[in-house]
């Protein structure tokens, strides 16, 4: 176990010098999480918009399920994906287990409900404000959804960023389906857990610094987008 000050100094050196292992791990983390975020938005935004703009029997139960799925335990999601992708599972023939693709699938399942639930609230509030105007224009459901998605684009970008923040910080599911294999499926969170258990604090701290910078950057971008949305609303 190294002295904390010494470990932090080495960690900063790794970050500032662009250490190869650190850059590789960060790059894979971003690729997996960004891909999962795009996939989750492609699934969650239409679902959220349709639920927000339509009234149907059982809608209350659907809202309860959507909100409940926001709290899916990552290890449970990882286990379910593992069982489906393992050789004995129904999708085992694809050979995706212990690959970045499996990690993307797990993260997508985790954050798609978050995107759907948050976007539903955003779009429902906007739909309530413009419902009479849409009816006067005789817009169908598709046109209404398209108009709402465009008008709510800044708020929905914050939803996407919230999903990305959740994905990039996730460890349980990606550990189960990715296996934390060096130079293949090792991402920031799993590497931090491994290196800390090994007592290799510099790399763990270096990755932790990058992860914190990403978290702060995401939050700053969310704040900026909210200010932009407010200015657009009052322009």
TrEMBL record:
One of its GO terms (biological process) is transmembrane transport. It is a multi-pass membrane protein. GO terms for cellular component: plasma membrane. Keywords: Membrane, Transmembrane, Transmembrane helix, Transport. SUPFAM superfamilies: MetI-like. Belongs to the binding-protein-dependent transport system permease family. This is ABC transporter permease. It comes from Mameliella alba.
